[in-house]
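Hey, quick one: can you model this chain's 3D structure?
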Amino acid sequence: MVYILCREQLNLKQCTYGIKRNPQWKAVGRRILGTRKCKIDLYSDEKLMYTLKQKSIIGQILENIPVIAWWYRNKFYLYHDGVCCGSSRSDLKFGQLSLWFEFGADRYHLLTHSFAKQSLTKNGRQVAVYQRFDNADYGCHCLKDSVGPDILLMFAVLIETYTMLDQDCVSGYIPNDPYKERASWRPPDE
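Sure thing. Here's the predicted structure for all 190 residues.
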């Protein structure tokens, strides 16, 4: 199953995404320039369902100090109907974003790879791989029935808003990627 997550609007502060052939889901990612402080609102049929955001201003300041940023990432919190239902933590790898999210009983790992690819695991099993294209659209290969379109869209917008919103280049190289095989993964049912 290949989802194409398409940009509907893009500027340096905000991006709006949807899923081709599934207009039910929309997401708006916002970022304060120069700080990487993000907020993502996820909508189903125009109703706000989830918000993923960073709340610590001090944490955001620390994350933007070059030496400290190598060891510290500001947490993300997931809200459903205004109630916090999950959070993130980070494995700090030089040059590679590695975020762990716990939402209810599920644990997700979002990891960036070379050449604008990102992988997603759920409870230790790879369920998706994303590829960013030059026009800021994303292709997503996903294991059937493993994760909903809401989660796939939320993580694509997080990647775009948190790491790529002010970058034109999609060809970055991450040396010594310990999980580089995840970038070329394809679901067996595809």
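One thing worth noting: The chain has one domain: 2-184.
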